[in-house]
Task: structure prediction
Amino acid sequence: MSGVSRRVLVVFGILALTAGTAHAQAIGSIFGKVIDQSGGVLPGVTVTVTGTGLQQPLVGTTQASGAYQFPSVPIGTYTVTFELSGFRKAVRQGVVIDNASVDGSAVRVNQFVPDVRLIRNEANVGFARGVNQGLAATTAPYVLIMNPDCRLMAGAIAALRAVLDAQPQCAITGPRVLNPDGSVQGSARGDPDMLTGLFGRTTLLRRVAPFLPIGRRNVVVDEAIRSGQPSVEVDWVSGACMLARREALDAVENFDERFFLYWEDADLCRRLRATGYHVRYVPGASAIHRVGHSSRTARRSAIRAFHRSAYLYYATHVAPAPLSPRRALARAILGTRCWLQLMAAWR
Result:
């Protein structure tokens, strides 16, 4: 499993917020300025532009004035996002957990010292354990947990925190998570069950018949966005990006480290809800996530980890009795599904 999710996560303790601003014109150029809440400019921020008029993203950095500009851009619809450095003033404590990466990415964290601390593991300890390491290394009341292949858009932290501030029983807020092309990912969902494998976020039936009630129950982002509400209570949100209340995490002893990769977010949210907390999806906050980028270098290991964690979740929350026949059925279905995906991965 050592190849899976080698660059695991970023954990931030939130203190003061960065309110980056971006103004884009698709008539000849895209430009803007990145500032913090006090009006201070943020130079050296990595700016990425994606959109319908581009064959590949535009990447640049803000100048000493905090400004950025991309000239001669075709007419189209664009999204402007900012890298980690654009949020340095947003955090009191930043921690990057490096799960024995081999691509030199850990070295890049040094440019953020002392704002960000790097913890390097000699072996890949998995996502859940890596997050717990980051939590143990911080003390702030709110913590932002992100995958390494996820980018926050300006104003996201402020929107997520506003919900936590307003609702003391809310344990976790999750943003609207977008694909690089701007389409919405199914990052807010209903509790998994036996039918999730058929109607889950990435399944064929979900794509062919998204209107079916069972599919809408498993992936609830569309209804949440259409509601027009600033936040919507959901069963769980993706661990790719979430802002969590430390007090709530402490109450359930953080992530369950039995989950090496996948489903640890669903498990965490379910345990939090069992203690009286709730979870909310915040469409007004956005993040861009390149799904599977963290695990693409070890595809077959990721497939095995996914199905092992799916069974662990099912045995823990759906069929907790050790001799339950539903466990045997789930093991058979997941085992077959895993084998089919492994065979496809070999091609």
Remarks:
- The first helix runs from residue 105 to 108.
- Residues 296-346 form one domain.
- The longest strand covers residues 278-289.
- Residues 173 and 280 are 5 Å apart (CA to CA).
